[in-house]
């Protein structure tokens, strides 16, 4: 209890106190406040009653840490940045590299739409909303920020609020979805004559156009309102779209 | 113009009266910077010009008209894309000087004007967002939340507006995608030369020559045609106000061909209390009207010729009216009156509308 150093005549506390206060005062403080106070060196914890308890406690701790190690924790921001999942290297920033992806996407969309590609309308719209847009060639047709109008490229990343596209000039552009309308054209592989129909559903508008020349195949053109489309592509798969108030319309 | 704060509430047109002296006219250096000439130049597209002269000097006016070329304008249906591309663009806009006005009213439709090489587009929100060219907000700040409108100005005579440059390509993109529909335009070629072959020919324009319609020998009661002497000076403001209001009213009634100013008009004072102010003198006047798509420079030149040719003792009146802008349909107007026996003096009325 009393921490008396054997070598010195006075305890260290008394020495320090005598520097700050006069001798009587220092002595009073030492005896009243310091000498009798116990100094805890570690938190009070009940000592293990016996070895068996101690062993049990050790086993529990080991089991919990094992479980934690198995469950995957989400990556922190630093870890994500280090992994560089969304980095596109300079060598990879070429439009021609993504063209095969675009062709794949066209095939995928034709497969999803099936016969709806000729008729358009609500059925096609429902299928398109749950489709994935990586590899689609989008063109910004209308935007609250007018400098974005006219951007055209292949989607390389579809995040919650933006499209990252690569333009023909090998530039990566990050286009926010807010207040922007995107137009996507899907050439129909077949050469039958098609009718034009226009319908509107919630957030995407479908339009079909037939090219006047015989050399061009007819295309299905639809417009996507980015405002209503602000979901990650994974989340969009099962989402039911309801028409929300749109500032544009 | 004094900078009145723009308000969202409709305000009636305002009239500014100036009573001044014209500087001496040098035929080699026609004036353009001083009043009243600068006022006439400051208008944009003139719809109507009216000249009222006493009957005695009509022959001189006819002489002036015979020497000058008849102004003409064309009505043509084109899309904006036709204007900014091809032969029309290089010949008329880049090399020549033209004035064009599209159909529509500024607060409601998309209106395009081309003047001094500057293309101005008055667009609604959707057209602006689809066009993709940066512009300025148009309209009262308080009211813009509901239906914001935009003004886009593009200087087509600048060196960067050639095919291949980014700014110009954006304009071409906008004209193809957002403004693809053909609209009716009024076209006026301000330069004296017409390029050959005429780039306008494929669009089959309708040519309209603006001949004046003359009304002669209108026998009217004349008011006092000289401003009172007290009108000059700070204390004479009221006299000037009375004089100018009465004179403007009389001139307007002549322009409207109202029977109330005719000599020998007997109308029941219950129906109309107007009486021509003055001593009851009578005289004959003649009115000439040009109606069409006229340029302010032509109007200024016409006024110069009138001032130079007509005898300095006689009075005359010259007024120009612009096309109306905006929803209310008001137009602005500038009228000039040269008093009798006061050569060099003039009274100028500027009517500025709300928009």
TrEMBL record, chain A:
Residues 26-73, 193-217 are annotated as: Disordered. Residues 26-35 have a biased composition (Basic and acidic residues). This is Ribonuclease P protein subunit. It is found in: Nucleus. The lineage of its organism: Eukaryota, Fungi, Dikarya, Ascomycota, Pezizomycotina. It comes from Sordaria brevicollis. SMART domains: POP4. GO terms for molecular function: ribonuclease P RNA binding. The keyword Translocase does not apply. GO terms for cellular component: nucleus; ribonuclease MRP complex; ribonuclease P complex.
UniProtKB/TrEMBL annotation, chain B:
Pfam families: Ribonuc_P_40. Transmembrane segments: none annotated. This is Ribonuclease P 40kDa subunit-domain-containing protein. One of its GO terms (cellular component) is multimeric ribonuclease P complex. GO terms for biological process: endonucleolytic cleavage in ITS1 to separate SSU-rRNA from 5.8S rRNA and LSU-rRNA from tricistronic rRNA transcript (SSU-rRNA, 5.8S rRNA, LSU-rRNA); tRNA 5'-leader removal. One of its GO terms (molecular function) is ribonuclease MRP activity.
